[in-house]
Amino acid sequence: MVRPIPQADPENIKMISQGPSLCIFNKADPQEVLASWIFTQFLLTNETQITYSQTEGYVPVTLRAQNSWLRMYAKGPDVSRKSMKIL
User: Fold this and answer.
1) Are 72 and 78 in contact (CB under 8 A)?
2) Which of 50, 48, 47 has the alpha carbon at shortest distance from 73?
C-alpha cells in the first residue's frame, strides 16, 4: 500500500529522503519509471530488508522482514546490536 507523506501545508508539499525512505518520480520516460519500480521491489524483498537492517541499523520496513528479523534476534547475536538500539 502506498500512502502520501503527511503534510503540514498540502499546498506546499515537501518530501524528505533519508534512511529507509523510498520514492519514485514520475518521469517522462516510462522505462525509467519501470526500472525504478523494479529496483524498489528488490529493495523490499525479505533478504534485502534483513541485510540492510543488519548493516545499517534500521528496523526492516516490511512486516514479513520484521518478523524474520525478530526471529533471528531471538536465536542469538546474528542481528546487529546497532539495530536493536532502535527498539
Assistant:
1) yes
2) 50
Q: How many CB atoms are located within 10 Å of the residue 6 CB? A: 6
DSSP secondary structure of the chain:
---PPP-S-TTS------TT-------S-HHHHHHHHHHHHHHTSHHHHHHHHHHH-PPPSSHHHHHHHHHHHHHSTTS-HHHHTT-
CA 73 to chain centre: 19
Ramachandran category for residue 5: left, alpha or beta (phi over 0 → left; psi -120 to 50 → alpha): beta
Asked if 60 contacts 49 with a C-beta cutoff of 8 angstroms, the reply is: yes
Express each pLDDT in 40-75 by its tens digit: 999 999 999 888 888 887 888 888 988 887 887 777
pTM over 0.85: no
